[in-house]
Each structure stands twice: as structure tokens, then as C-alpha cells.
Amino acid sequence: MPLASAHSRSRLAARLMLVGSAFCFGLMAILARKLTQPAMGFTPGHLAVLRFTVGAAVSLGAFAAIPGLYRPTNHRLLVARGLSGGAVVVLYFYALARIPAGEAGILYNMFPVLATVMSLFFFKERPTIHLWLAILAASLGVGLVLGQGHAGFGFGPGQWAALGAALFAATSANAIRAVRHTDNAATIFFFFCLAGLPVVLPFALSAWPGGLLPWALAILMSLLAFGGQILMAQAYGALSIPEAAAWLQLLPIVQYLLAVPLLGERATAAGLAGVLVTVAGVVYATAMGHRR
Questions:
Q1: 160: domain range?
Q2: pLDDT digits over 265-276, tens only?
């Protein structure tokens, strides 16, 4: 009985970590959207470089404090994950600079479905009817979000950037799944920052802004991104992948709702319905998309 009770507490703690992770990533996106407005002066490239630099610095501090934590083994996959992660960050920040945070979040949140489709080829899994139904549902949700308040269905650079970020995020997810057999989460995150930095540096060559407030918010944004990654990695130790993925679908909801009071973005019935439908589709795909 004590063992079962301890296991139950561990699962509860993991679920709370995923709630915290969703909040961290959601608030990170809100700050990124705010920081890329003309009044603040940061570009998506600036924020991407800052996020990787802060992440690498915190990782080096952790490696110095905990001997043996840094144990790279599969360098090829670690670097591949970092390169695709760099593309994710710069594309997502670009999307946040161009379109509302809620819309960017719902498009980016297509990546679990895309990752599932990719895994069918990378890991030789066959598609199920559940997967195709989930993709249809998620696509319908995206259509509801994109159609809110518009006369027609439009797709601009911001929307394409968010979908591009989702595609690279799906690639990263499969790379992480493969490399986790040989390397720990801390080492993977460090290579994410290290290999991703050269990808985003060319987008940060313009003049950097000044001012105490913009820089304080930018550092906070980077720390929130780090916190979201760590909480998510910790939670995966106690939960199954389908259950953890289901809880991670809180992210687009948190991001969509936070954008209303913090950025003044308008929530509509169609937009909220789109969030819920897409989340339901992604959760369904993650839980039922693979054959047992």
C-alpha cells in the first residue's frame, strides 16, 4: 500500500509539472509576442539567440554543480536535434511577431500529430483509422481559429512560419525519442542550445535594442522557456507518453487565454471552439494513433 501511495503521489506531481510547463511555455510566447512589437525593439532572431544563450549558460552551471550530468553519446542525433530545434525557435518567434499569440500557438500545436505521422516512417509503424480521424479533427480546429473574424480563409507568412515550426518540432520529437536511449535529458537540452545557436545567429545581426525593461522581460522569457523544458522532461519520468502528451495539450489553451488579458487579443466563440477541437484531435492522435 505505501508503494502504491508513493506511485500515486509521483504521478500527481508529474501532472502538476506539466501544468507548470504549459504555463511557462504559454507565458513565454506572450512575452515573445510583446517583445517583438516596435516599442520593445527585439526581433525574432534576437529572442532566439537570447533563449539559446541563457539555456546554454544555465546548463553549464548545472554540469559544473552535478558531476557526471554531462554525458553525450550519440553526437550525430544530438546535433540533428539541436539544428531542427534552432529552426523551431526562430520560426515560432517569427510567427509570434506576425500573428496573434493564440493563433500561433494553435498552429504550432499541430506538431504532435505531425510527429506521429513521421514516426510511422521512422519507426516503421502503420497508420490507424484513429490517426486519420484525429488529423481531420485537428485540421477542422485550425480552420475554426484561422477563420475567426475574417471574411475568408487566409494564410500569410506568420501562419506558414508557425506551421514550419510545427514541422521542425515534429522532427525534433522523433530525434529526441531516438536519442533518449543513449543520452539524458540535460545533455539533450544543452545540445539543443549549442547546435541551435548557429542556426539562429544569422537572424540576429541587426542592432539590438536597449533599455532595462525590454532586457529584463527578454531574460524572463528565456528562463520561462528553460523552466518549461525542465518541467516537461521531469514529468515524462512518471507518466506514460500518451498521458503526458494529453496534459501538454493544455499549452494552446493557456496561451490562447493568456493572450486576452495580457496582449488585448480578442477571443471569439469560433476561436475557442477551434482550440478545443484541435486539442481533442491532437490528444486523440497521441493516445490512439499507434497500434498497440
A1: 2-288
A2: 777 777 777 777
DSSP string of 216-240? HHHHHHHHHHHHHHHHHHHHTTTS-
Outline where the chain has alpha helix (H): 2-35, 44-65, 75-98, 101-108, 111-122, 129-147, 157-179, 185-200, 212-235, 241-248, 250-263, 269-288
Closest residue by Cα to residue 110 from 71, 137, 75:
137
The answer to whether 148 and 278 have CB atoms below 8 angstroms apart is no
Q: Please state, in angstroms and rounded to a whole number, the distance separating the CA atoms of residues 209 and 225.
A: 21
Residue 281 DSSP symbol: H
Separation of alpha carbons 181 and 177, rounded Å? 8
Question: How many domains is the chain partitioned into structurally?
Answer: 1
pLDDT digits (tens, 9 = 90+) for 145-190: 666 544 444 578 899 999 999 999 888 877 877 787 788 888 888 9
